[in-house]
Amino acid sequence: MSSDHALVEILSIATALSSASDLRSLLHLILSKSRMLTNSDAGSIFLVERPDRRRDPKGREELWFAVSQNATVAARAHAAGETDAFEDKMMDIRFPLTPERLVGWTALAGDVLNIADVYDLPEDLPYHFDASVDQSLNYRAVSMLCVPMRSTSGQIVGVMQLINRKHEAGSLIDPQTAVSLTRPYSQFDQQLIEALASQAAVCVERTRLLEAQQQLIDSMITLLAGAIDAKSHHTGGHCARVPELAFLLARAADAETEGPLTDFRFATTDDWREFRIGAWLHDCGKITTPEYVVDKATKLETNYNRIHEIRTRFEVLLRDAWIERLDAVLAGGHPEEADRVYAATKAELEEDFAFIASSNLGGEFFDPQKVERLSKIAQRTWLRCFDDRLGLSWEEQQRRCSETDIAADHLPALEHLLADQPWQVIPRLPEDRPDSKYGFKMDVPENLYNRGEIYNLSVSRGTLTDEERYKINEHIIQTIVMLESMPFPENLSRVCEYAGSHHETMDGRGYPRKLNAEDLSVPSRIMAIADIFEALTAADRPYKKAKTLSESVAILAGFRDRKHIDADLFALFLRSGAYRDYAERFLEPGQIDAVDVEKFL
User: Is the N-terminal amide bond of 412 cis, ω within 30° of 0?
Assistant: First the structure.
C-alpha cells in the first residue's frame, strides 16, 4: 500500500476520532483499518486495566481483550452459521499483566515486538508465545506485530496486536499452510501501526477522562443528595427515592405510542442522564435550610421544644399557689378553704397547660376560638426573680436592647405566662431577599423568623409559621441559584429546569416562578408528581404518619383535580402500574393496599 493511501486512511480515522464517542466502535475501526493497511489476517487491541488503589490496595493490573478480529476464524464461523462466535469467544477475556506474554511484555516495557514467526522464538527470551488461543480457535499465528499504545501523558494504556501479514489480500489462513501464506511485518508497517496505535491511545485516554469526569460529577451529585438526606434523619432517603419514582414514570411516558404523550422521547443516553441528574439535585437547595425548620414537629420547636419553658412557668405558678395555701393556714385561715382554693387553682393550671400542650402539636385546623383562649391564658402572670439577659450571645444581647426589657435592678418582675417579645422577632436583611434577576414571584415575609410564643401556638395548620414555611419553600430558590451558577455542559443544560420546577403547578399558582402549563416540560411535570407521591408515602417524617397507597393515590387525584399536576401523566402513573412498582420497592408492607385505578381515571 502506498504512503499516500495510508495517510488518507489515517486522516479518516482522525475524523472519526473527533466525531464518535463510543470507544469500542472506534477501536474496531482503528483495528480494521490497521489490518487493511498491513493486509493482516487478524488483530486485537488489549487495554491495560489498573485497579483503584484506594479501594483495592492489593489489586493487580490486567490486560483486557477490548476488540478482536480474525478474518479466517470469522469466515469459518459464518459458514457454520455462527456469525458472532469469534467475537463472543474473545470478549471479556482478562489475564494478569505480566512480562511472560508478548502483549504483556510490550505493555510493561513499552517496546515494539516485530516477530517473523511466534513459534520460532529463542527460549532464552523473557517472553514467549501463548499458543492456547490458537488451539482454541484451530488457528496458526505466524508473523506478529505488538505495538504499545502510549497516551499523551506517556502512560501505556494498551497494546495493538496484528497477526499474519498475508501475501495476498482476501486469502484465508489455513493452519497447515500458514507459514507459506504469511510474511513478516516491514519497517514501514511498524511505523504505520505505531501512528495508529497512538491514535487508539488518544481514544482510550479521552474516553477514560470523560468517564472519570462523569463519575466524578455523578459521585458529587449523589454525595450532595446524600448529605441533604443525612442532614435530617427524618427525611433520609427522599433525594434517592424521588429519582427512582421519576424514572419509573419517565420510562412509561417514553414508551407511549399513542395519546397525548406520544411525542415525548428521551432520544439519547445524554437525555436520560440529564434527567437523572436533575432528579438527584431537585432538593440540593435544602442544604441551606435549617435542620430545625425541616424537622419542626411541634409549634414551639426551634433547636429544642420550648414547651418545657412554658411548663416550668406553670410549675412556678403551682408552687406559688401551694405557698399561698401555707401562708393562709399560718395566718389563721381555715385549712379547708385554703385546700379548696389550691385545688381549684391546680385544676385550672393543669387544664390550661394541657390545652397549650395539645395546641403545640399542630393539626389540620386551629380555629379562632382556640386562639382567643390562648390569648386569655397568656394574660396570667408569674414572678421572675432572675435577670433573663445573663448568658446570652452578643447577637441575642443586641436584640434584647429594647425599652420593654426589664433591667436587673427592677427585679423581681411580673411576666406574662405566654408572650410575643420584640426580641423574638429576627428581621429580614436585604441579603436575605432573593435576587430579582431569577424571576422569582414568591411572597417574601417581612421578617426572617418570628419566635413569639403566642404567634407560633396560633398557627392555624401544621407547625410552621409563615416565615418558616417560606424558609422551607426557599429551598427551591436556593436550588435554582446554585444550579444556574454551575457551568453545565450543553448536554446537561436542562438540569436546572428539571430540578427547579417540581413545585410549579399546571394552573400557574406554584412557586417560585408561577410558571404556567405551557412553560412546563414533560420531565418537569414528572418531577412534580414524583416529589408529591414520595412525600405522601414516606414513613420517615416526624410531622405526619405514612399514608397508605390508596390514600396517597386519592390525594394525588385531588392535586390533579385542582390542576396542580398533569392529568395525562397522572393517568399514565396509574395505568402503567408505576405507582405499584414503586410501592413494592419502597413502601412498608402495611402501606400497600388495593387501589381502584378506574375510580381515579
Answer: yes
